[in-house]
Design a protein that fits this description.
The complex is a heterodimer. Chain A is mostly helical. In chain A, helix 6 runs antiparallel to helix 7 (about 150-160) and helix 12 packs antiparallel against helix 13. Chain A contains 24 helices and no strands. In chain A, about 75% of the residues lie in helices and about 0% in strands. Chain B is α+β, with helices and mostly antiparallel strands. Helix content of chain B is about 35%, strand content about 40%. Chain B contains three helices and eight strands. Chain B has helices spanning about 1-20, 35-65, 105-110; strands at about 70-75, 85-90, 95-100, 115-120, 125-135, 145-155, 160-170, 175-180. Chain B has a four-stranded mixed sheet. A four-stranded antiparallel sheet of chain B has the order 3-2-5-6, with no helix packed on it. In chain B, about 25% of the residues are buried. The chains are: A mainly alpha, B alpha+beta.
């Protein structure tokens, strides 16, 4: 829906109640544009070749901890991603993704505003032996770092070194960065040529076109600026931010035309602004002025009367309070004009009263508290924007300020500092728990150590080893002599002893021994046969058992050594942990003190900006008030003159339009 | 009245042209000097906190999960056409150690190649049994519950286990793999 203003009275869909919503839309558009200017919105994942534009990444994770950093990153938990990646790299857990993790780290640093660290990484990558695609990405990011640091010539030099194809998301960002760098160097014509010749998807280019158009208009090159702004103004984007940008482009172009008194060209451009747009109020005002400039005051009244019903906080609405009676006066409806000016005075006085209260509130420092009261305190995001605007009287006057980039940056700093402070406080709580863990371990060690020492003292590993060695020697001797009886069972050995005793019995050799001798020989032969038959197996079994014993002895020796090492090192390790914890606590406390100081400075700047803005608004309203008073006085003066003339020429008919009879209305705090 | 019109036009011009044309910073470095100094301090603080955070993470891990007893279990996904992950339950030696319910955002991060460390704990050296139960929506939007078991030998170094959910195209079914990493 556009601002198709007809000369008939119509009901507009937008009501005053939406002003907070539209203000938030402006805040978001500015946040979007800020992100665009800073190059924050683009996928950093592409730095590691792992963004959505690079499908190979999802299957290429070869180190779990690299994937773990990506898991945090893909959820916009950038602080966690950065921390996890730093830990993983310092512990050697991402060795299979050395280059990718370094690129990702550089990208994360860049987006976290750590330009020096980011630049170090990209420079290091460019001197290393890396693939052309990594080199191109490093040049891209190096250029981006330089652009963000305002080194625009150097940025363009880096961009020029890109020789191959970049991942899609970076490729879309590149012309925008080049154009912004050129504009920063005031090489506007080159920027225009770059944008005009760009054949790829638009992406964020409308923002670059907008900025270029504005730059041309600032240089009084209206036709060049109009070409860029008109292109944005006629686009058909799908996202709400780009629709808002389109409205803003049309508004900027429309007012540029109005400034050059090209009122006929201004009107259709301003009429393209959507009625539900955050920029609708200013567009309505401009359309009215375009009509007024063509002396079509009746037409001008339609947008202005609509505008007059809206929230008086908006400067366009404030101006409509003067514009409406002005149009009535031009139409010789002096009575309505006088009423309009009187109403304007009442409204301005009321608003000035509200502003005085708002100034007092801002001076008390309530603003940042109110703005951040609903904020998610999580530390993870650095592309941050306000989710909700407060609905207080003071905040209503500050919507334009809140949408201001400088204010947003400052507010983001306050928010980040709060998040950092909260994060450090969490660590302090954890460290207290760590201290308890160390104390508990120390106590447990004190209790267990004597018991462990006693049980270890009972274990004589060298004696066990000696016994094992004796067994091994005996086995070697048996094998060398093929002593088959040496591997016999207890039963067999007992039987052998008995057979030997029988063999030595003289009765065996007696004449009446009968077949006893044969039976003895048979039994002895069976015994030898059995021992010989089982010898090889028994030898192998004994060797295997000895081998297992060796393993068990080695394990026991290792465990004893480990236990002794733990017993020996535990007190020193616990002392080291205690020292590390004790060392870090004052560092955290020191940081929290610095955070509190910087936060106070930043908040003070924000409050000063707020108070200054409110004073500006108050001064503007005071100026409007003077204009209303002057206009009203002029009307009264004319009416008085007309009345005098009428009393002199009693016989002539009264001119109702030229000289209405007006009675000055008493206006609070107003001199007629 | 002509003067008035000019005056109003002037107001419009000053208010709106200035306002409109100055809202978006043309350059990233267009910030006031005072703001820049605070901003610089904020950046230094962020850097210091990052360094400290890394140290504290290492301290926490070394103290609570020393390498000789550390075991970490990770969940990863590949494609995921046949399985919409809802939750994963981990049991070690028949004791539940983790029961994690995934958000859509987390599942999206897994599908893009992220790996979630679902469990970090301590185990004695020796043999242990790890069981993972995956719950979600399988093919034909039916509820799906599948378990996978792995015997793990915990040595003196840290033990990492990856639970991987992938698609088995031939059977049009999800597949759950368990892999040990050293």
């Amino acid at each position: 829906m556009s601002l198709a203003i007809a000369n008939t009275s119509r009901t507009y869909a937008v009501t005053q109640a939406t002003s907070r919503t539209t203000a938030l839309a402006v805040v978001r558009l500015v946040a979007c544009v800020t992100a665009f200017v800073l190059g924050l919105q683009m996928s950093v994942a592409s730095a590691a070749g792992s963004g959505p534009a690079d499908p190979m990444a999802a299957k290429a994770v070869r180190d779990l901890y690299y994937g773990e950093a990506l898991f945090q990153f893909y959820q916009d938990k950038h602080f966690d991603a950065l921390t996890h990646l730093l830990v993983a790299r310092s512990t050697g857990r991402v060795q299979n993704h050395e280059t990718e993790s370094e690129l990702l780290l550089g990208g994360l640093y860049l987006n976290y505003g750590q330009h020096v660290r980011a630049e170090e990484i990209f420079n290091r990558l460019l001197t290393a032996d890396v693939s052309p695609s990594v080199r191109d990405r490093a040049w891209f990011y190096l250029g981006k770092v330089r652009y963000q640091r305002g080194l625009n010539e150097d940025a363009l030099t880096a961009f020029a070194r890109i020789s191959g194809e970049l991942p899609a998301s970076l490729s879309a960002e590149l012309p925008m960065l080049k154009a912004q760098s050129l504009m920063a160097l005031e090489r506007f014509d080159e920027a225009a040529t770059l944008l005009d010749n760009w054949k790829g998807p638009d992406g964020w280019l409308p923002y670059a076109r907008y900025n270029l158009g504005v730059a041309f208009i600032r240089l009084n090159r209206l036709s060049d600026g109009a070409r860029q702004l008109d292109r944005v103004g006629r686009s058909s984007p799908r996202s709400e931010e780009l629709l808002d940008l389109r409205d803003k482009a049309n508004l900027a172009l429309g007012y540029a035309y109005l400034q050059q008194s090209l009122d006929g060209q201004a009107r259709p451009v301003l009429a393209r602004v959507r009625l539900a747009s955050p920029f609708a109020n200013k567009a309505l005002l401009g359309v009215g002025w375009a009509d007024a400039a063509a002396h079509n005051y009746r037409a001008a009244l339609t947008p202005w009367l609509e505008l007059k019903q809206r929230d008086l906080v908006d400067s366009a609405v404030q101006e409509s309070m003067l514009a409406v009676p002005y149009a009535y006066a031009q139409l010789n409806a002096h009575g309505s004009a006088a009423e309009g000016y009187q109403a304007a005075l009442v409204s301005f006085d009321s608003e000035i009263g509200q502003l005085d209260k708002a100034i007092q509130s801002a001076e008390n420092g309530d603003l940042t508290r109110a703005l951040l009261v609903r904020d998610d305190p999580g530390i993870g995001r650095w592309y941050w924007e306000l989710e909700q605007l407060p609905d207080s009287t003071a905040a209503r006057y500050l919507y334009p300020l809140i949408a201001n980039n400088r204010f947003q940056e400052g507010l983001r700093n306050v928010r980040d500092l709060d998040a950092l402070d909260g994060h450090l406080q969490e660590w302090r709580d954890k460290l207290a728990a760590f201290d308890d863990v160390v104390a508990t371990r120390r106590k447990a060690y004190g209790q267990r150590e004597p018991v462990i020492r006693e049980s270890l003292d009972k274990v004589n590993l060298p004696a066990l080893q000696a016994r094992r060695d004796a067994v091994a020697a005996r086995l070697a001797e048996i094998e060398a002599q093929r002593d088959i009886a040496g591997l016999g069972t207890d039963e067999e050995l007992d039987r052998s002893r008995r057979l030997t005793a029988i063999g030595n019995d003289p009765g065996l050799k007696a004449a009446d021994a009968g077949d006893l001798n044969d039976r003895y020989r048979l039994l002895k032969g069976v015994q030898l046969w059995n021992l010989d038959r089982d010898y090889k197996y028994r030898l192998w079994a004994q060797k295997r058992a000895l081998h297992e014993l060796d393993g068990l002895l080695a394990e026991a020796t290792r465990r004893q050594a480990d236990t002794n090492a733990v017993r020996r090192d535990m007190p020193a390790n616990l002392d080291t942990f205690s020292r590390r914890i004790a060392d870090v606590v004052p560092r955290i406390e020191g940081m929290q003190q610095v955070i509190a100081r910087v936060r106070g400075q930043q908040e003070g700047q924000l409050h000063a900006m707020a108070v200054e803005t409110l004073h500006e608004q108050r001064e503007r309203l005071a100026a409007y008030r003077v204009q209303a008073q002057f206009a009203l006085a002029t009307i009264y003066d004319r009416a008085a003159t007309a009345a005098r003339t009428a009393s002199t020429v009693r016989h002539e008919p009264e001119d109702s339009t030229a000289a209405p009879t007006l009675q000055p209305r008493s206006v609070s705090g107003t001199d007629p | 009245m002509a003067n008035n019109l000019t005056q109003f036009h002037l107001i419009s011009g000053v208010l709106f042209i200035t306002g409109i044309l100055s809202t978006f910073p043309a350059r990233a470095d267009e910030v006031a000097p005072a703001a820049a100094s605070v901003d610089g301090e904020v950046q230094v603080l962020k850097d210091e906190v990052l360094d400290l955070n890394r140290e504290l993470f290492l301290l926490e891990e070394e103290l609570l999960f020393p390498a000789n007893t550390q075991v970490a279990v990770f969940v990863s996904m590949d494609v995921g056409d046949f399985f919409d992950l809802d939750s994963v339950q981990i049991r070690i030696d028949d004791k539940p150690v983790s029961n994690y319910l995934y958000t859509d955002r987390e599942v999206a991060a897994l599908l893009r190649g992220g790996v979630h460390r679902i469990y970090l704990g301590n185990l004695k050296t020796g043999e242990h049994e790890l069981t993972a139960v995956f719950t979600g929506e399988g093919p034909h939007t039916r509820d799906y519950r599948r378990g996978a078991t792995l015997k793990i030998e915990k040595g003196i170094g840290a033990k990492f286990v990856e639970l991987r959910i992938s698609d088995r195209e031939s059977k049009q079914q999800p597949e759950f793999l368990v892999k040990e990493w050293e």
